[in-house]
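Section 5.1 Outputs to date
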Amino acid sequence: MVGQTFSVLGEEPFHRMIALERKRTERSGNPFLLMLLDGGNCLPADKGGKVLSKILSALSLATRETDVTGWYKTYSIIGVMFTDISAEDRESILGTMMSRVSETLRHNLSPENFSQISISMHVFPEEWNQESTHGNPTLYPDFVNRNQAQRFGRIAKRGIDIVGSTAALLLLSPLFFTVALLVKLSSKGPILFKQDRLGQFGKTFTFLKFRSMYANNDRKIHQEFMKRVIKGDHDGRAEGGTKPVYKMTNDPRITRIGAILRKTSLDELPQFINVLRGDMSLVGPRPPIAYECHEYDIWHRRRVLEVKPGITGLWQVRGRSRVRFDDMVRLDLQYVRTWSLWLDLQILAQTPRALFSDDAF
């Protein structure tokens, strides 16, 4: 009876539906709610399917025809997607849904079975604000599936990161010493610049660079500039330039040595330490600052969520600061879609030429 009236998707198609609904939300801006019912030992031990039947019957009474139900984890966790919920009333909707489903389950299940079920709520898009810019991995089961399918490639990628960063730190140690000395002698302040950046799923890590600015500078200059760039309000004009530039020029915070380091990207050398630690990869999207992510559209966030950040990437070898922010994000997402070890090697091979090309700025 339940199978005829209430459709339940398998794990793989349900994960695909979650991914599809995320893309719809990116376009429409209308949030959706993912409710997960973890049966604990209740469902795996349900040999005759009686408990599952009662749970599905209860869900049929608490959900709409447009809501999607499926296995988030086969015979363990049931998921329900409530689509097109109101962004303004999301908190009250969460409470209403939790109360409705809980009461329905309570009346359909034995106290013993009901006590084994835990219910969690996950809303997409996540609320990114001054206090939190973390992605919720639960909303991205397709990423987990993709990474599992690419498991050996990912292991090899990490191996390349370890070998490549170790070799760079050893071979370039004289250059490290020279740059460190120049930074120390040119202005007061620490040799290394340390800043909180966002890694995959918004996890914060300490990002390292050689200091290229005067100490104790005002970050609001960069914050306001990046806000205009992300929103598309910066026209790319640069003083004395003939090509558009989507990067700050004539920044009063940068030292004379710092300008040279930035032009040649020598200030980025300490990031090989980040790669060795596992915070970053040799190849991937650039890690953003939290205040930049606060200005992101929903679809921009995927550049932070989908893969680990890197030192270089498609953006660096295809225009760098000459590329608009939206196009930079599209390049990052193209990298994710088409990723392979061969692509990483191609990008690494093209990076030195890109650093010293006319478009590098």
